[in-house]
Design a protein that fits this description.
By secondary structure, the chain is mainly alpha-helical. It has a domain at 5-43: Orthogonal Bundle (Histone, subunit A). Helices cover 38% and strands 4% of the residues. Strands 1-2 form a two-stranded antiparallel ribbon. It starts with a helix and ends in a 7-residue tail after the last strand. Belongs to the GatC family.
């Protein structure tokens, strides 16, 4: 697949990138080389190959949920500069 300078400039416009003429020329060559390499993959015989999402089996790496006591309101608010009952009091940020 051959990519043109106009296509590179169009993608740059969509990405809101300003490219110099030199950058557009450079990226056109680089993108063309990348797409040519990827196009080689189309030559591979993949019949009988099962599609996979991961190269290795994935397992859930999360720990089990455990109920533990919290630090409590007094400890949490102990060093708060201002508080209102059981809440942190912060300056108003919306006018």
């Amino acid at each position: 697949m051959k990519i043109t300078k106009a296509e590179v400039e169009h993608v740059a416009l969509l990405a809101r990138l300003e490219l110099t003429e030199q950058e557009a020329e450079t990226f056109t060559g680089q993108m063309d080389a990348i797409l040519a390499y990827v196009d080689k993959l189309n030559e591979l015989d993949t019949d009988g190959i099962v599609p996979t999402a991961h190269a290795v089996p994935m397992e859930n790496a999360f720990r089990a949920d455990e109920v533990t006591p919290s630090i409590g309101i007094e400890n949490a608010l102990g060093n708060a500069p201002k508080r209102a009952e059981s809440f942190f009091r912060v300056p108003k940020v919306i006018e």
